[in-house]
Design brief:
The protein has helices at residues 10-22, 41-46, 65-75, 89-124, 130-152, 165-179, 189-202, 204-211, 220-225, 230-238, and strands spanning 2-5, 27-30, 54-57, 60-63. By secondary structure, the protein is α+β, with helices and mostly antiparallel strands. Helix 1 runs parallel beside helix 3 (65-75), helix 1 (10-22) runs antiparallel to helix 8 and helix 4 runs antiparallel to helix 5. It is globular and about 50 Å long.
């Protein structure tokens, strides 16, 4: 199995962490997003979608992180602990409920904060408008409120006493704005305790390995400025801000 990843990407981190945590063997294929490698002719032959992660299992190519996570959990169901993607109908439905909700909520809002604070100045040539950043931060806070009040409630993990794919996908998304300098956990003791439980389940070494790049995101603008193909890839990123 080959996994095409860049750990700056939160969906890539979820796939990387899951495979590592449950012992699924894979070959890490780096696709440097800051260099625009996803737009290369070679990568286009693998995936016309030109986004990562991408999984290649023999001749079978799969895109979209949620689809990849479910595929791995089900392909290796004999060795992957059931709690990650439970066989029980209602427990699995709870995992799917969160995974369906997060796309246009926590993922969208956390990503927007990161993009405005980290990529906007490089791609647009100026700081992001304050009103846009403030609106993105407000949306993020609302999503975090829903994560706590609707999904986590008073449980150790999103679906109950054990960690699942829902918790994994949630934590990597929250760490994205954290990497841009926004402490999404500030003033949220319930969320802090949940984060610490998730980190313990994965082990500090794996958690920190997966998030090393994003926690050094302050170096990303300079890396982009040094990219000789920056002017070529700028229009593709500028579309995100219009």
């Amino acid at each position: 199995m080959e996994l095409y990843l860049d750990l700056f990407s939160q969906p890539c981190r979820s796939v990387f962490m899951f495979a590592k945590a449950v012992g699924i063997p894979f070959e890490f294929k780096m696709v440097d997003l800051s260099a625009g490698q996803q737009f290369s002719e070679e990568f286009g032959k693998l995936s016309m979608i030109r986004k990562i992660p991408v999984m290649k299992d023999g001749n079978f190519v799969l895109t979209e992180s949620i689809a990849i996570l479910k595929y791995m959990a089900q392909k290796y169901s004999s060795s992957v602990p059931d709690h990650w993607y439970p066989a029980d109908l209602q427990q699995r439905a709870r995992v799917n409920e969160y995974l369906s909700w997060q796309h246009m909520n926590l993922r969208a809002h956390g990503s927007k904060v990161f993009l405005f604070r980290t990529l906007y100045p490089v791609m647009m040539g100026s700081e992001a408008p304050k009103e846009k950043i403030d609106a993105a931060l407000e949306d993020l806070q609302q999503s975090l409120n829903l994560l706590e009040e609707n999904f986590l409630r008073n449980k150790p993990f999103i679906i109950g006493d054990k960690i699942s794919l829902a918790d994994l996908v949630a934590i990597v998304e929250i760490m994205q704005p954290v990497g841009s300098g926004v402490d999404a956990f500030e003033g949220r003791p319930k969320l802090i305790a949940w984060r610490d439980r998730v980190k313990k389940e994965f082990g500090e070494k794996l958690f920190d390995e997966a998030h090393d790049a994003i926690m050094k995101a302050s170096s990303l603008p300079q890396k982009l400025q040094n990219n000789k193909d920056l002017e070529m890839i700028k229009p593709k990123y500028q579309r995100l801000f219009r």
